[in-house]
Automatic annotation (TrEMBL):
Gene of this entry: Igsf1
Record has S-adenosyl-L-methionine as a keyword: no
Domain Ig-like: 3-86
Residues spanning the signal sequence: none
Tree of life domain: Eukaryota
GO biological process: immune response-regulating signaling pathway
Entry keyword set: Disulfide bond, Glycoprotein, Immunoglobulin domain, Repeat, Signal
InterPro entries registered for this protein in UniProt: Ig-like_dom (IPR007110), Ig-like_dom_sf (IPR036179), Ig-like_fold (IPR013783), Ig-like_Receptors_ImmuneReg (IPR050412), Ig_sub (IPR003599)
Keyword Disulfide bond: yes
Protein name, per record: IGSF1 protein
Gene3D superfamilies: Immunoglobulins
Length: 185
């Protein structure tokens, strides 16, 4: 039972060629180091700043694609490993979607909240992202445009965005929507 490490992209989503993102590793750890791995190979070691280490990807190319994970070390001992984070680099060919949160950006705990990702493409599916989470919250198909949280609580607050794709002969992606902050009171 070592510490739990979370790994996530800031901002979340698929990165366009030439774009940039930050791989963030965080844990409730004392002092030690994070080692970033890509496809099982050690890339870099970073000291903790507070309870996180950040690894930047600038001017992204296909070389940056892959499966990333963080290991937390004290001395030479690996105390914990994160889940694997898949980083994808793709051209954006679809229009940028628009995210809306209903009934509004500020809600009281216990309310119903609907996330709607709108894109002008008939067969697109969309992912809903919450910053700080390694996985996408939900895959929204065109038949079901909305992602609903029935009884929101403080933990549902945060910065949300969405990104859409189509599965034609190849996978085509949109840019990530503008980020909206949901505040739960």
């Amino acid at each position: 039972g070592g510490p739990t490490i979370s790994i996530f992209l800031k901002p979340p989503g698929v990165i366009p060629p030439g774009g940039s993102t930050t791989i963030s590793c965080s844990c409730q750890c004392d002092n030690g180091n994070f080692v970033l791995y890509k496809n099982g190979h050690q890339l870099r070691t970073m000291e903790l700043r507070g309870n996180r280490a950040e690894f930047s990807i600038c001017n992204a190319t296909q070389e940056d694609r892959g499966a990333y994970s963080c290991h937390y070390l004290a001395g030479d001992n690996v105390l914990a490993r994160s889940e694997t984070l898949e980083v994808m680099v793709q051209e954006f060919r679809l229009p940028r979607p628009v995210l809306s949160i209903l009934p509004g950006l500020e809600v009281t705990a216990g309310a119903y909240v609907t996330f709607r990702c709108t894109i002008s493409h008939s067969k697109a599916g969309c992912f809903l992202y919450l910053e700080g989470q390694s996985n996408t919250l939900d895959l929204l198909s065109k038949e079901e445009d909305d992602f609903i949280i029935s009884h929101v609580h403080k933990g549902n607050g945060g910065h949300y965005s969405c990104q859409c794709f189509t599965k034609n002969t190849s996978l085509e992606w949109s840019a990530v929507s503008k980020t909206l902050e949901l505040v739960v009171r």
